Amino acid sequence: MTSRERVLTAFAHEPPDRVPRWCGASVEFWHKAKRELHLDDEALRVRLGDDFRRVLAEYAGPTFPLRHEDATGRTVFGVERHGMGYGQPLSHPLAGASLADVHAYPWPEADWMDVSGIRPAAEAWGGKYAILGGDWSPFWHDAIDLMGMETLSLKMYDEPEFVDALMRHLVDYYAAVSERIFDAAGAAIDVFFLGNDFGGQAGPLLGPDLFERFLLPHLRRLIDLGHAYGLKTQLHCCGAIGPLIPMMIDAGLDALHAVQPDCHGMDLRRLKEEFGERIVFNGAIDSRGVLIAGTPDTVRAATREVLGIMMPGGGYVAGASHDTILEETPVENVLAMFDAVQEFGAY
Question: What pTM was computed for the model?
Fold first, then answer.
């Protein structure tokens, strides 16, 4: 099978020739791995056996001057951030806003994203790999940035119409961007990949009732958008989200990434037994306790154990339980994980 055929077979909940492999890595880890292994980007993907490739739109909108001297970046929604990686917001622009202020806020335009390179980039892979596309669409994170977590939570009880309007503006933008991407790419994309972290270590960040009321309709809207273009949909969602999974399945989600087994209620055997026939699980090999803290031998053993649980019947993609493998992860442990998938992941 080609990588694309392998992935789409797994997404159909049928056994492919072997378990597909997924590698999401931080920029820092990726540079380290290339340096240690003396490989370029594509050679490293091939060495790890990654069955996916990703295409992204490029920001081509207006340039805004940073207002805070400590700011290291600015989101498209005007939130300035500081710190490592994505950083943390320096302020919450809509923390004290009224409903009228939300509607009057200077929301971004979808045509700020340049989609002209999407189709050529996807077609350059020659149909060999499963292509991920669409906007990441982290509307939950953006709402927290704009409001602050505490204020946003209180608004759900005190002014639900305010939260509805905020989410609608955010998702209006993301849906419009992804629609432009899908129109430009034609049939060159296979999976609409989006991300929102709805869970913490001990449980969901919102209870099922609030999740269903305020977030699920917008997640469903994006899922429906992907399906309207004939795409599979995959959500990256960290944390202990077990109580939310049935609602995600009912909303039509095809795959869930990255499945953290060290979080409360995320026992892999239970997840596979209860949901494995209705949703694809992508990840599940513990990034913290296994990949960072282990040795190649313990990584190999743990990977083999996870495969024994998750791969029967298809519907599984093997990879780390974090969306981006962190810099402190030993390269030899990542190689051991993917080599073990190759060795023990045949159907």
Answer: 0.97
